[in-house]
Amino acid sequence: xxxxKYVLLPNRIRSIKSGFSFIPHRFLREGFFxxxxxxxxxxxxxxxxxxDREGVSYYSQDRLCHLLKMCLEDFLEARNRLIEKDLxxxxxxxxxxxxxxxxxxxxxxxxxINREDFERSDPLTIRRIIGKSLxxxxxx
Length: 140
Known about the structure:
Blueprint: H1 26-29, H2 38-50, E1 56-57, H3 61-68, H4 72-84, E2 88-90, E3 95-97, H5 115-121, H6 123-134
């Protein structure tokens, strides 16, 4: 079954003056670069390399992970953060590298306030819970 090509966000098609693999200088100059982690950068740059003139890529997530030598979990985390930062769109099959937003998006930091927050997001609390469950409910 052939995949039908379409642009995810037509109002965000990036403009490339010559060839593919274009990164505007404002990506660096206006602070987008420094807002990205190493994993976010390599995923973003690879998506730029494999996308067409409209920023659309049909590479599967497995193929991208293989090319990056990155485990799926790390890839998904970087992908989700790039979406939160409004740099890419994804519909489950197709990626689109978007035109840069007006300014870098800094996702809000969610503070850990209650027990549920810590059990869901704090590495040490999660480690303690796992250790406790592996030891039959006894503290180590």
